[in-house]
């Protein structure tokens, strides 16, 4: 094995897939095997693997101006164009945008800008951030503490106490309901828990609540009807800002421009990465409202600078990649396409897998979905040690489809936005075969 500390990997594992090239929704390994990339890499390769226009935009930019930082009075046209374009797209009034390199650092930037803002307006005590159980927001120090998945916290001494992070219930009815509770009762109960917590902590000490409109890495949770409406009313009542982490759901993924649109969220802050450039170049964006930006000016003047920024904030090639990606989304009506094929994916997943003996719940919206694999369809009991997810992912791979098991036994789908209906048919036929064999092998192992 090469001397690499592989990210988010079991460091004892020796099996690896070495990818060599990509084409459309497909990738090919070094043994010549062809796979459908059913998770768009890591929820990011929206335009697939051979978009010549984005590649040309990047190489043109590299040939013209391969680098410019954006500190202390420097700017460049691709950055200006991208900021103006994004500001016009997002449902945030008078939006200002801080650029970074990854979803994690974008969330850290938001965390710091919130502190900066509340210090600036003389409310330094308004510092706590609410996050949800099963939320995923990245792995840098602040983002890693906002994440609630055990593997991202354990052994890292996270969450970092000084960050003042509060955790509230995950809005997942299937795994979180109590007894015969209805969806509406479930929503009311978890939001009552949240209000109790807000009052116990004192609303004046809470800055914002971060949320993925639909979660990704924690199992593709689509909150029940009514949840976001009531949640936002509660947060507004207590003066807590709504921070939407759209790193996965941004740009057509849920069948609309943003997950916020699909789920009826009016955000104050938004985080983007991944599909912002279709992953052809790393770039992220932390969007804040103009009223927040305006208050950040005075302290920056007092100290001399707004003292936060990365060498690669607004990298010209990254901006060129993002600009071209956004242009293609618009020109080719890819959000409309995602809505159409997304409805088809959701319908076909339900038609094919609702009655499958290994599947407890089929969930998702647009082109993001998951099958919850269970040991008992009636009770919804889980499969020990995430073994269901691991076996199914391997079987899918053996059948030419790359998927990812998240939160143990949720088999996640998030194909490139360019996928077509025949390609969805092909993918699901292969997954059906894989789940049939997974069911037999898990049964033989005594896990069902
Ligand atoms: N937020 C969300 C919702 C994510 O899904 C991810 C990555 N999967 C991140 C943040 C972190 O992004 P990155 O891996 O680019 O740091």
From TrEMBL:
Highest rank taxon of the organism: Bacteria
Cofactor(s) the protein needs: pyridoxal 5'-phosphate
GO molecular function (one): transaminase activity
Record-linked Pfam families: Aminotran_3
Gene3D superfamilies, sorted: Aspartate Aminotransferase, domain 1, Type I PLP-dependent aspartate aminotransferase-like (Major domain)
Keyword line: Aminotransferase, Pyridoxal phosphate, Transferase
Similarity field: Belongs to the class-III pyridoxal-phosphate-dependent aminotransferase family.
Name of the protein in its database record: Aspartate aminotransferase family protein
Taxonomic path: Bacteria, Pseudomonadati, Pseudomonadota, Alphaproteobacteria, Rhodobacterales
């Amino acid at each position: 094995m090469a001397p690499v500390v592989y990210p988010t990997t079991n460091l004892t594992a020796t099996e690896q897939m070495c990818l060599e090239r990509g084409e459309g929704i497909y990738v090919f390994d070094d043994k010549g095997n062809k796979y459908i990339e059913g998770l768009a890499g890591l929820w990011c390769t929206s335009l697939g693997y051979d978009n010549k226009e984005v590649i040309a935009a990047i190489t043109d930019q590299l040939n013209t101006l391969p680098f410019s930082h954006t500190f202390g009075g420097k700017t460049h046209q691709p950055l200006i164009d991208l900021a103006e374009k994004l500001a016009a797209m997002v449902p945030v009034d008078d939006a200002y945008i801080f650029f970074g390199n990854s979803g994690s650092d974008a969330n850290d930037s938001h965390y710091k800008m919130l502190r900066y803002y509340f210090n600036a307006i003389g409310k330094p005590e308004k510092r706590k951030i609410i996050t949800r159980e099963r939320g995923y927001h990245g792995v840098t120090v602040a983002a890693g503490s906002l994440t609630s998945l055990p593997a991202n916290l354990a052994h890292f001494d996270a969450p970092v106490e000084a960050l003042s992070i509060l955790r509230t219930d995950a809005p997942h009815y299937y795994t979180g309901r109590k007894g015969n509770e209805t969806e509406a009762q479930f929503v009311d109960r978890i939001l009552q828990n949240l209000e109790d917590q807000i009052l116990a902590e004192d609303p004046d000490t809470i800055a914002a609540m971060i949320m993925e409109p639909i979660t990704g890495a924690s199992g593709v949770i689509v909150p029940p009807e009514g949840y976001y409406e009531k949640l936002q009313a509660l947060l507004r009542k207590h003066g807590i800002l709504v921070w939407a982490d759209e790193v996965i759901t941004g740009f057509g993924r849920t069948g609309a421009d943003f997950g916020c649109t699909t789920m009826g969220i009016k955000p104050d802050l938004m985080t983007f990465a991944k599909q912002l450039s279709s992953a052809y170049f790393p770039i992220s964006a932390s969007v804040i409202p103009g009223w927040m930006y305006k208050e950040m000016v005075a302290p920056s003047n007092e100290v001399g600078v707004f003292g936060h920024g990365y060498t690669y904030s607004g990298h010209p090639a990254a901006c060129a990649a993002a600009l071209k990606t956004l242009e293609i989304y618009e020109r080719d009506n890819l959000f409309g396409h995602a809505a159409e094929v997304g409805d088809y994916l959701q319908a076909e997943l339900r038609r094919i897998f609702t009655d499958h003996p290994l599947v407890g719940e089929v969930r998702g919206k647009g082109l993001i979905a998951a099958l919850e694999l269970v040991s008992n369809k009636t009770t919804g009991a889980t499969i020990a040690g995430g073994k269901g997810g691991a076996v199914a992912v391997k079987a899918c791979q053996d059948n030419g489809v790359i998927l990812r098991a998240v939160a143990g036994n949720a088999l996640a789908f998030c194909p490139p936005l360019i996928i077509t209906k025949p390609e969805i048919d092909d993918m699901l036929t292969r997954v059906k075969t894989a789940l049939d064999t997974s069911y037999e092998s898990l049964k033989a192992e005594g896990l069902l």
